[in-house]
Amino acid sequence: MTDRYASFVRTGAGRALVKRLGLPDPPRLRRHTPGDPLVPGPVLLGSATGGRLAEPVRAILAAAGVEPADPAAAPDPERRHAALVYDATGITDSTGLGQLHEFFHPQARSIMPSGRVIVLGTPPEECGSPREATAQRAIEGLTRSIGKEFGRGVTAQLVHVTPNGDAGTTTGLESTLRFLLSGRSAYVSGQVIRVGAGAAEPPADWNRPLDGQVVLVTGAARGIGAALAKVLARDGAQVVALDVPAAGDELAAVANEIGGSAVQLDLTAPDAPTRLAEHLAGRHGRVDVVVHNAGITRDKTLGRMDADRWNSVVDVNLSSQERINDVLLERKLVPAGGRIVSVSSIAGIAGNRGQTNYATSKAGVIGLVQSLAPVLRERGISINAVAPGFIETRMTARIPLVVREAGRRMNSMTQGGLPVDVAETIGWLAWPASGAISGNIVRVCGQSLLGA
Ligand SMILES: NC(=O)c1ccc[n+]([C@@H]2O[C@H](COP(=O)([O-])OP(=O)(O)OC[C@H]3O[C@@H](n4cnc5c(N)ncnc54)[C@H](O)[C@@H]3O)[C@@H](O)[C@H]2O)c1
Fold first, then answer.
1. C-alpha–C-alpha distance, residues 91 and 137, integer Å
2. Catalytic residue (one of 5, 86, 187, 358)
3. Is 3.40.50.2020 the CATH classification of the domain at 31-195?
């Protein structure tokens, strides 16, 4: 699916028309290519008085070959930053919020297109006092607004770092900082990401963060699943690509392209979980990462929706994930350090007209992740979900034109995301280095206005 409007506005005539009529001007987003430097320019690192994370962040940047710019240097209107990173953990009272203005106000125009704004804070529920929790909660308003205000493909996130465990060390934080600074997070903005406790294993090579991992991707024949299989293989994973037998040819093409294996299986078949478990046990003896991506839509308003549409959507999108998790976990095929990533949707957060079945299934996926996270933590397994917004696939190509155009533009990037944007986000959650992230729901929606 192509965005013809975005292609047009990038032509000379298109640019002129967009300027004259004040139409949306979708920026070209910086996306990741292997071997890219983490950021294409200097990073300005600031800290509120008493912050606890500036040093770990400095060490992470240094390890990535990034020299932070000096925040005390005289303001230079010519200087451009690829990222602004601010440690706000020292803010313990609303009277300290002025430090955010002090840091960001002079830099608002210094950030490059597709730049990154990252603010590090403490989860309000883990703060030492109501005053501190209030001030920390307030910061979310800043980051979400920056995401809407800066434009030109700039993203803004708040990363809540738990004060205990590994999270405040370079090991716990590194994967998240690397993901957010890089072009991998092109379509992720306005998010609050929680980095908690949990063992994180840094890779030998950050260009291959999934080296040696056995990864199952469901719904891998096309769309987001095919992009996922390719991104995960590029990052070093051995991919087991699964889809229905009817999609066998497309599935084989994906598996061949990436040197992975193909499993033709309908996830709703009663024996699907055991057949899958036997396949994984026989071929690999384990599965390090399970990505539940397969999904369907059967749209109708509730009054017109028959039971079949309702049941099939809930079964594919939610119940099959539960059945497969149960069998793989029961048979101990997901080892300590394992990862489960489920694909939800912003429809599961905001609801959507004509999609009561789909939104129910996708909200259920969020429930599944949040309820299993504490249980799986005991076994050293993390579970997270991504909630894509408007992504350019066959699924969204079926949406009627006017609704499609609205969905595509009503976000801070004024464009739809690409399957690769969802794939890169899932990849980050799957890395062995991301063990400190569990129970998160990360939207890949360009900061869509829906459900925000
Ligand atoms: N495209 C979007 O904008 C968007 C937005 C939010 C969420 N999502 C979610 O992302 C995921 C992928 O979406 P997509 O746009 O790539 O969809 P798609 O329709 O292009 O691909 C889905 C794949 O899942 C497979 N599948 C369906 N039922 C299956 C079953 N019973 N067993 C095995 N495989 C099955 C299909 O054959 C297909 O290859 C879905 O869960 C979808 O709900 C997509």
1. 11
2. 358
3. no
